[in-house]
Amino acid sequence: MAEQTLPPPSSQEQRWTEIEFLPAWSEEYYDVYTARKLGKWVMLKTLKKEFRDDPKYRAMIDKEFDVRYNLSHPNIVMINDYEDVPGLGRCIITDDVYGKSLRTLIDSGELEDKHYEQLRTRLPLAMEYIQQNHLAHHPIRPETIIFTENIGNLKLIDVGFDQKSRLCHSDTNDDVRSFGNVMKEVLRVTGRRDPAMARIADKAAGGGYRDVQALRLALENRSAKRFYIVAIIFLTLLVAALVWLSFNSPTK
User: How crowded is residue 239: how many other Cβ atoms within 10 Å of its Cβ?
Assistant: First the structure.
């Protein structure tokens, strides 16, 4: 019997390889995949199968692409393209941010100092950028905060489904409350002792800061106070050492 020759893969099949479903990343209306596009790792976000043919939900993913396409911030997942992928339909294509969510790190006890420091410093910066661009988005939660696999950079996902002419106070205050709730959980579950941060997190969760700028100022003052305390301790020890040397140095 003659050997059967298979047809060569189509250009689309060659374009997309190693497509893998990520159930832990799925959202209410979307499924998320990791894949290689022309050999480069990317992430794919597409409507769940039951929503793909509904014009309302197709308009929703179209709008999310339009809203997020021009965003550019080191701590926000960037959108690269929007195209049809074989077997998945229309997909938003983002940078590869495969890694572990803050929820996973908390639950597994893997949260390290490098993660905590980025939550304290970079998360408010990402939130401020979102507000400056008047983006309406779902609440920031441990599930939407990702630390990339290789470098461990903080990345926010699910950062905007609409863009408004301006944000109202409740919109901006929700972000502050979200930050407070995230940090309170981090401190509670990990047992990390940081009294200053605990006070800021409690105040933020209760809506005690008018906006992210006020929250950032409180965080920066916390850092400044810590610096001054360390500087005072260092100077005190230095003076004590000089005094000791002056009394114990051999006389001529």
Answer: 10
Q: Write out the two tokens for 183.
A: 């940090």
Q: Write down the pTM of the prediction.
A: 0.80
Distance of CA 94 to CAs 99, 155, 207, Å?
14, 12, 33
Mind listing the pLDDT tens digit for each residue in 69-118? 999 999 999 999 999 999 999 999 999 988 999 999 999 999 999 999 99
In which order are the strands placed within the sheet that holds 30-37? 16-21, 30-37, 40-47, 89-95, 79-85
Question: 59 is written with which tokens?
Answer: 């308009």
Residues (pLDDT < 70) of the chain are 1-13, 222-246, 249-252
Give the C-alpha distances (Å, rounded to integers) separating 210 from 37, 184, 206.
Answer: 43, 19, 11
Say which amino acid occupies 248: N
Q: What is the pLDDT of residue 228?
A: 43
Closest Cα partner for 144 from 130, 164, 163, 165? 130
30 C-beta neighbours (distance < 10 Å), count? 20
User: Could you write out the DSSP letters of every residue in 75-102?
Assistant: TBPPEEEEEEETTTEEEEEEE---EEEH
